[in-house]
Amino acid sequence: MKEKRVYGFVCHSGKEKSGSEHFHEMFLVTWDGRPLHVHGFSGTTSYDAGHNHRYAGTTEPAPSGVPHTHAYCTATSFDDGHTHVIRGRTGPAVPLPNGGHIHYFEGFTTVSGRIPHVHSYSGRTTV
Asked: Name one Pfam family in it (predicted).
């Protein structure tokens, strides 16, 4: 198995767990020598059960310069007394003519609401 070099930095969270324990968060900067990057995403769900929801978030990091996808997860806006969660994995990178790339994504929200229902969603990430 080839060894992968991972670089990042660690920050003290300032949040204490139980007693005197504390924890640190690690933010990766490179994976196997390649810089990591993220994309923003946002949109509006389908109109179902008399309403829709808005959503926005940032994908999880992925290495640059190689074929890749990104995981994503966020909660929708609070509408009609509830929220939904959207989560999934983007499609592969789609190169743009002037450089950079985007990813397409689509799926269905979790079930929620006074009348249990789901919404569909789809979109593309930012560059």
From this structure: YmaF
The pair of three-digit structure tokens given for residue 25, joined into one six-digit string: 């968060």
Convert the chain into a string of H (helix), E (strand) and C (coil): CCCCCEEEEEEEEEEECCCCCEEEEEEEEEECCEEEECCEEEEECCCECCECCEEEEECCCEECCCCCCCEEEEECCCECCECCEEEEECCCCEECCCCCEECEEEEECCCECCCCECCEEEEECCC
Residue 65's pLDDT is 85
pLDDT digits (tens, 9 = 90+) for 108-117: 999 999 999 9
The stretch 32-52 carries a mean pLDDT of 91
What are the residues whose beta carbons fall under 8 Å from the beta carbon of 124, sequence distance 6 or more?
41, 102, 103, 104, 105
Longest distance between any two alpha carbons in the chain, whole Å = 55
